[in-house]
Amino acid sequence: MRIEELSFVKAFIRLATDGDRRGWHERNGGNLSYRMTGADINACSAQFDTAAPWIPVKTAVPLLAGDCILLTGSGKCMRNIAAAPTDTVGIIELNGRGDAYRIVWGLIKSRPTSELPTHLAVAALKKTEDAEKNRVIYHAHPAHLIALTFILPIDDARFTRELWEMDIENPLVFPEGIGIVPWVIPGSEAAAAATLEKMKSYRAVVWAHHGTFVCGDDFDDTFGLMDVLEKSAQICGEIIAMGGKRQSVTAADLNALADMYNLHLNEAALVIEERRDCPGEI
Fold first, then answer.
1. pLDDT-flagged residues of the chain (< 70)
2. What is the pLDDT of residue 282?
3. In what order do the strands lie in the sheet with 89-94?
4. Sign of the Cα pseudo-torsion (123, 106, 40, 138, in order)
5. HSE on the CB side for 107, CA within 13 Å?
6. Residue 274: predicted pLDDT
7. Which residues 6+ apart lie within 8 Å of 200 measured at CB?
8. Distance of alpha carbon 211 from alpha carbon 140, whole angstroms
9. What is the per-residue pLDDT for 278?
C-alpha cells in the first residue's frame, strides 16, 4: 500500500481539506503536523528515502530524536493536498540528537512548513506531558478568532471567559482555557518561544492578528477544537454587532457545570468580575 493510502495519511488529508472548506486557509495559509506512532512508521518505513540529506533544525529537539513527523510543505495550499499529496505533504525523520531532519517521503522539490520550529517545539513539549497524546498540531487562520484579537483584550483569562460563555458546553471542550500571544513575526524563533510558553498551560493558542495554533490527540479532536473556538468567536462577534450582552453565563453557572462534569476550570477566567454592558470589557 502506498503511503498516501494509509489511514493516518487519509485522516491528515481530510483535516486539511475540511479546514480549507471552512475558509481557514486562504492562499497558502496554515500548516499541519502529526507525530507518527511506531505502528505508523512500521507501515511505511520500507518506502522511506533513507539516502536523503540531513538538514539542521534551528533549535535542537532531543526529545524528538528518531521520531517521524508527517507535515505540510512551505508555500503549499491546503486545497491542493488531496489532489497532490506527495507534492504538498511529506514525512521528516529526526536524527538521533534531534538537531537535524531529513525528508524521507513526499515534499517533492519542496521543504517543510516555515512554522517547523513551532511545530517541533510544541510536539516535544506535549510528548513530555504524555507521549501518546497531542500528536496533531494545527495552525489555521479562522477569521472570527482573528477579528476578536482586534476587539478583546490580549489576555488569556478574558478571552477564555468570553468564549466559554458563547456555548455552555465550551468549558467541557477547553476547560484549561486558551492562550493569547501578542503579535509576533510568523515563522520566527520568537513566535515558537511564545507559543511554547503558552502551550505549557493550554492546547489552543491564538496569535493576535494572525491565526490560531491547536493540538489534539487525534485528527478529529484537533479539528473539533479549532471548530469550536471559531464558532464561539463568531457568536461573540455577532453579539458585539447586536449591541452587546444583556445577560450571560455567571461564575456560579460555570462552577455548577464544573461540579457536574468534574472539570478543573481555569481559575483566572472564573474569577473575572462580571459586568456587562460592553462586550470585550469583562
1. 273-282
2. 41
3. 55-56, 100-106, 89-94, 68-72, 31-35, 136-140, 211-216, 204-207, 179-181
4. positive
5. 22
6. 54
7. 125
8. 6
9. 43
Which listed residue (115, 162, 165, 230) is catalytic?
Answer: 115
Place of cell 513527523: 69
Residue 278 CA to residue 282 CA, distance in Å, equals 8
Residue 276: all three cell numbers together: 456587562
pLDDT of residue 113: 95
**Rounded distance, CA 33 to CA 11, Å?**
12
Task: Based on the residue annotation, tell me whether 115 is a catalytic residue of this protein.
Answer: yes
The span from the CA of 89 to the CA of 263, in Å, is 37
Buried-exposed string 57-93: b where 16+ CB fall within 10 A, e elsewhere:
beebbebbeebbbbbbbbebbbbbbbeebebbbbbbb
Handedness of CA 273, 276, 279, 281 (dihedral sign): negative
Please tell me the predicted confidence (pLDDT) of residue 134: 95
